[in-house]
Amino acid sequence: MVASDDYRLDPEFQRRHRWDDEKKSRLIESFIMNVPIPPIFLYEVGYAKYEVMDGLQRLTAIADFYGERLVLTGLEEWSELNGRTYKTLPDAVRRGVDRRYLSSVVLLQETASNPAEAQRLKQLVFERINSGGVSLSHQESRNAIFDGPMNRLCLQLSRTPALCETWGIPSPTADEAAGGEINPLARQNEFFRQMTDVELVLRFFAYRQRLQNQEGSLKVFLDEYLQKANLLTDETLDQLKELFVETINLAEALFGEKAFYLWRKRVTGWGWYRRPTTSVYDPMMFALSRFRFARALLISRKDALQDAIREMYERDYAQFEGRYTNRENLRRRNELFVEVFEKFAA
Questions:
Q1: pLDDT at 13
Q2: Secondary structure (DSSP) of 299-335
Q3: How far is CA 339 from CA 87, 162, 206, 243, 259, in A?
Q4: Banded model confidence at residue 197, pLDDT cuts 50, 70, 90
Q5: Does residue 173 sit in the same domain as residue 223?
Q6: How many CA atoms lie within 13 A of 283 on its CB side?
Q7: 166 is in which domain, residue-wise?
Q8: Which neighbouring-strand residues pair with 272?
Q9: Contact assessment for residue 248 and residue 166, using Cβ atoms and an 8 Å cutoff
Q10: Which end of the chain is more exposed for a tag (fewer CB within 10 A), N or C?
Q11: What 8-state DSSP symbol labels residue 100?
């Protein structure tokens, strides 16, 4: 299945491979012990062609094991097999593993009457079958269900060094930048593991239309935006890519790793909230995207600009408290950042 073109098994399609070698090894140990393994779920996208809705990591683990890319580690019941690969297992154990199988459940394409219904059905099934294991973030679920050109662009842009720097995510190594494996340190980062970085990119694009179009929860709005944005032309996507990269690079150049920290009031006085927040990220990125043309001027005045931003927080701190997320509050945050940048861009 992993090698076949009839099965869609894009590593980025579901999660960012949360399983480490110990988790993979325990799956193989379960086969050795003949412990029942849950079925994989497939969605029929065409005649005899399928998407793997659930089971990617099990299939990948098995493929790594048979491909000699997995060295068993962390086994407890069969600890004597630690350090072994498939080929170095005792013959009897290897034959036992070979006899095991994975069952599958196939959701037929004909179950849905139209593409929209198929998308809704896939989302429902994916969320239901994943609700009993590791909880999925909204973006992990969104990434699995609404794949398309915009979704893949968000995945690509999530590894922009400036975004990584400002959100405390290990940046791409030279090998990763050249198309190699993702920085192993990034896989240990919670923002990366839960695809928060991908959602941040999506939020930037969607936020520009949020005040005019959001009805209901932010999750639903982002779901609907991504679905529609997947239909954009390549030319438009290229323009959006340039917009994001220029904006996040400008934010990092002006404020460094504290770009999206909130200057907040505590009992002991004013100080930086020691992590980035979306209450700053959303309006700052919105405003900076409008002043990209003044990059050189803003950077030349960044010390005074930083002081002005702190003064703005102290003067209008109530606007940035997390409990205020109504439409008027979001609009006012945008205006505050636009007003500050406008003074230094003139």
A1: 44
A2: HHTHHHHHHHHHHHHHHSGGGGSTT--SHHHHHHHHH
A3: 66, 24, 22, 20, 17
A4: very high
A5: yes
A6: 25
A7: 137-232
A8: 263
A9: yes
A10: C
A11: -
